[in-house]
Amino acid sequence: MAHNPGSVDEDLIKEIKVLLWGNNVKEDVFNRWAQGFQFSTDEPTALVQLEGGPCAVIAPVQAYIIKNLLLKGPPDTWKNITNDEQNELLIKSTMEIILQAADSQFPRYSLVNFNINDDNLMPNGELSQTVPSPVNETMNETENTKQSDSTRIDSSKTTFDSNYFHSRLRIYTTMNIDDVKKYLTMKINTLKEPFGVLLLLYTVVCTKGIPGMHSEMSDQTEPAIDSTYGYGSQSLINLMLTGRAVSHVWDHDQDVGGLKLRGIDKQNAIGFLAFLEHLRFCEVGTFLKSPSHPVWVLGSETHLTVLFSTDRRLVSPETPAEQARRVFKRFDPEGNNFIPTNLLQDVLAELDLVADTEYVDIMRKKLDCESLGIILLASFMDEFFPEEPRTCPDTFPLLHYNGLPRSNPDNCIVYRAGEAVLLECTVKCILDSNPMLTVLQTKWPSIEIQWNGNITPSLN
After folding, report:
1. Are residues 340 and 440 both part of a single domain?
2. Is residue 71 in a domain?
3. CA-CA distance, 177 to 109, in Å (whole number)?
């Protein structure tokens, strides 16, 4: 029995379209996003970004690909990857991004496809038990796998019409994780074709749901994709990285003047570092600065790239002192590095330290001996968490990915390697500084890096 998408599907697509693009889709911006996931011929595990804009999706996918590669073996073994292994990496990484966007208690996955045969759907729009695939489509997809990467990349430079694209979108819904994997496996070549990046984006947004997006975004009136330059908003970047469409990158939610500003709620698998933090336009919390895998998306003012390391000591578990610093800052939303004395008991209780009234009164007097009514972060840390031994290594390898050919020497997209050194000085070394060093100093203030060939990779 055929299923014709009703007004529910059409209305949902319209809502997603407005949320992402605003009331009017700029065709030139849309076309910059109309590309598939293609691997570089020079670095077979690195994705190619054809134009500025879709890095908000491509860089997070690349970060998850690298995370999964690091669990398999060192980078010098990645060159011999097969086409099937590329597909497997793409499926696993996109699946992770989709799953974390779903409601954790009542997961429901909405998979968006282009030009789908409606017979694949049951009358209620749910995935059938076995996702069927028309014979011709299977044959075409098999033929597509024989195309070279360069052919695919050239074909994605064609001009596309956004209205046509949106009119051909169809939505599968399922509550079964296995269906998601089956679907992505069947549609792997669709991800590689010109609308692949957009289809993943729409799938993630649709899985999150419009109410979920609106509840986490600070400003629902601003489109998630900049109408002039095509850049993805921080909400969009956070959605792809963490599953939360929040607009800020600090830890937890913060109350600023009675306004609740949503942040990152737990340690993430992939990290994020921002050049704008150096300019004090944002504050990246420890949940993103210290992820569970040594992979970070780097945000310049206009582009996203990926930094990673093979040294897992960079992501050792959060120490008690790091946890204490993070919790203290929750009670210091304005970043003053002090809290009112009346909040000391709450901080101690949050950290599972002794918090009975008599003890707290004694500590208040000790930490605020001049009766100023405040407790300094430094005094608090000295009292409860004296200096811990350093767990971060002094030297470690770093590798950097930039998906734009024009941002790489000779237009070759390859991982650029370097060796990092953490100097003894605690003051930022700003001599001969550069954007790459500046953004990395937001996490490692005393870092210096010697890049292979003395060529510093580009953040833009």
Report:
1. no
2. yes
3. 8
